[in-house]
Design a protein that fits this description.
Length: about 450
RNA sequence: GUGGGCAUAGCUCAAUUGGUUAGAGCACCUGACUGUGGAUCAGGAGGUUGCCGGUUCAAUUCCGGUUGCCCACCCCA
C-alpha cells in the first residue's frame, strides 16, 4: 500500500469550497470581460531561460525546476506576467496595437506554505494586463479594475497602496543610498506601519546608513497628510528628475482614478511601498485588508515597460495586476462569508427496483431536457439507502420510482424538508418539479449572501 | 530561508508523578424499521500512540534523532 499524502503546499479543494470558488471566479471573470479584456491561457511549463532574470534573485530561488530526459531546462511558471510577455513577443505582428488580456491559471512557488495566510505553493492567479500603451490611463484602469473586483466580492475595509518605482529610486538617490543597498533599505522602510518609525530608524542605522541620510530619508516618508498633500509636499522639495517624474505620474494616475469614480480614501500613496519583482518600471500598487493584515496582499501589480523588450529587443509598454484568487477565498472564509453548505436545488431520481431502472433513467433524461438539475441514483438500492444519500447531499426533492409507482402510473414525490409525500401522474410530475425547483432557484438568488 | 509549537481512531480531543486490556464525542456500519432520511435506542468495526533508536522491570508519557504538520518572521498572491 502507498500512503495517501500531499506534497507540502498542495491541497485538494473540496466540493463545497470549489462551488464557492466558482462563484467568485465567475464574478471576477465577468468583470474582466466587462472591461473589454480577452482571455488567454499559456502552458504551465516554460523554458527556464524565459523565466530567469526577470523577478530578482530571491524570487528565482522559488522556481520549481524540472529535470527532463531530453536535456531541456524547464520550470513551472512563477507568475502569469512573464509568460504573457513571452507570448506578446512571439505574436507582436498579429496582435492589436493595444492588447488587453485576462488570464486565470495556477502558478507555482517553492516557498513555505502557510494556509492561514492564504499562502500555498500552487495557487490561482487572475491577471489583467494592458499591453502597448504608455498612457497612465492604463495604470488607473488597472487599479480601478482591482478595486471593482474587491467591491464585487463584498470587501469593504481594504486599502490600495500606491507608489512609483522611479520616484522611489529618486528619493533613495536624494538620500545617497547606494544602489546595492536599495532593496534592503526599501524592505526596512516598508515596515514603518508594522513596527513603527523608531525601530525602522534603528535598523537603518545598523551599518546601512549615516544618521544624516536617515534624517533626509524621513523628510520624505514621515507624513500623515492625504495623497494630494503628500505629493505636493514632495514636489515642493524640488528633488531630482526621477522623483519629479514619479510624482507627476502619480498625480496623473490619481486624477484618472477620480474620473473612474474611484473614491480617493480607498487609495493610499505610500512612498515606502517597494514590491518584490524586478520587472516593474513605473507605478506599483497592491491591496491589503485592514482587518486581516496577516493575509498579505490580495492583489498586486504595476507598470513594466521593458519586460517584453527582453525577448524582442524593442520595448513595448505594459501595465497590469494580479488578483490572488486563493487568497481572496481564504480571506472570505476567514470572514465567515463562505457558507460550507451550499443549498442544493437538485432532484434525486431513485431506482428502487432493478426491473424499472430504465424508467428512472428515461425520466431523469426528460427532466434534464427541461432544465432541471437531476441526480440519478446509480444503482437499485433500498429506499433507506437512497434517502440517506439525499439527506447527506442536502437534496430537497426525491422522486421515488419502484414497483408501486409503475403499477399505479403515479410518481411519488418526497419533500425531504417537510417529509411530505405526494403522488403525481406521470404527465404532471415534470411540470410540478419544475415549478418547485424554479421557485427554489429564485429564492436562492434572492437570499444568496454575496460572497 | 530563520525561530517556536505540536504529532494518540476518518475528524476533534482524553489517558493521574512512567503502571494492567489506550478512552470519549462526532462520523461510519448493523439492527429496532423486509417501501422511507435526519431524531432516539441497542450493538459493531476502527490503533504498530508519525518513524528510528535510547533509558527503564515497565514508555502514549522521559531522552536523542528523523519525518510531517501548524504558527510567527521573511517575502509575496
Amino acid at each position: 500500500m502507498i500512503k495517501p499524502r500531499l506534497y507540502r503546499g498542495m491541497r485538494d479543494i473540496e466540493p463545497a469550497e470549489m462551488e464557492f470558488q466558482e462563484i467568485v471566479l465567475a464574478k471576477v471573470q465577468e468583470l474582466f470581460k466587462k472591461f473589454g479584456f480577452l482571455p488567454l491561457k499559456t502552458p504551465a511549463i516554460e523554458y527556464l531561460d524565459i523565466l530567469t532574470g526577470k523577478y530578482g534573485e530571491e524570487s528565482e530561488k522559488l522556481f520549481y525546476n524540472l529535470a527532463y530526459g531530453d536535456g531541456h531546462t524547464l520550470a513551472l511558471r512563477y507568475d502569469l506576467t512573464v509568460p504573457l510577455a513571452r507570448y506578446i513577443a512571439m505574436h507582436t505582428h498579429e496582435l492589436p496595437n493595444i492588447f488587453k488580456r485576462y488570464q486565470i491559471q495556477q502558478v507555482w512557488r517553492a516557498e513555505r506554505a502557510q494556509p492561514r495566510q492564504g499562502r500555498f505553493r500552487e495557487f490561482l492567479q487572475c491577471d489583467v494586463d494592458i499591453i502597448g500603451s504608455n498612457s497612465l490611463v492604463s495604470d488607473a484602469e488597472i487599479i480601478a479594475i482591482s478595486i471593482e473586483c474587491l467591491e464585487a466580492l463584498g470587501f469593504k475595509n481594504y486599502s490600495v497602496k500606491l507608489n512609483h518605482r522611479v520616484l522611489l529610486k529618486g528619493l533613495l538617490n536624494e538620500a545617497g543610498v547606494h544602489q546595492e543597498n536599495e532593496m534592503v533599505v526599501c524592505r526596512i522602510l516598508d515596515k514603518i506601519d508594522k513596527i513603527g518609525m523608531d525601530k525602522v530608524k534603528a535598523q537603518l542605522e545598523k551599518d546601512l546608513l549615516e544618521p544624516g541620510q536617515i534624517k533626509k530619508l524621513f523628510t520624505f516618508f514621515d507624513s500623515k497628510a492625504d495623497n494630494e498633500q503628500k505629493l505636493t509636499n514632495l514636489e515642493n522639495m524640488k528633488l531630482n528628475k526621477d522623483a519629479q517624474k514619479g510624482i507627476e505620474d502619480l498625480k496623473t494616475i490619481l486624477g484618472h482614478l477620480n474620473s473612474f469614480n474611484i473614491s480617493q480614501d480607498k487609495i493610499e500613496f505610500d512612498p515606502a511601498l517597494a514590491r518584490g519583482l524586478d520587472y516593474y518600471t513605473g507605478s506599483i500598487f497592491e491591496t491589503v485588508l485592514l482587518d486581516h493584515p496577516h493575509i498579505g496582499s490580495l492583489t498586486g501589480g504595476g507598470r513594466y515597460d521593458n519586460l517584453i523588450g527582453v525577448f524582442i529587443g524593442r520595448d513595448i509598454p505594459a501595465c497590469g495586476t494580479t488578483v490572488g484568487l486563493d487568497r481572496i477565498v481564504t480571506a472570505l472564509s476567514e470572514m465567515k462569508r463562505l457558507d460550507k453548505k451550499i443549498p442544493s436545488n437538485k432532484v434525486l431520481v431513485t431506482i428502487l427496483d432493478e426491473n424499472y431502472a430504465s424508467y428512472s433513467i428515461k425520466l431523469a433524461s426528460k427532466m434534464r431536457k427541461e432544465g432541471i438539475t437531476v441526480d440519478l441514483f446509480p444503482e437499485p438500492a433500498s429506499i433507506r439507502y437512497q434517502l440517506s444519500y439525499a439527506d447527506k447531499m442536502n437534496i430537497e426533492f426525491v422522486l421515488l420510482i419502484g414497483e408501486n409507482e409503475i403499477k399505479n402510473k403515479m410518481i411519488r414525490l418526497k419533500n425531504m424538508k417537510t417529509g411530505e409525500q405526494t403522488d403525481y401522474p406521470e404527465d404532471l410530475i415534470i411540470k410540478e418539479i419544475k415549478k418547485l425547483t424554479d421557485k427554489k432557484e429564485n429564492g436562492k438568488i434572492e437570499n444568496a449572501k454575496t460572497p
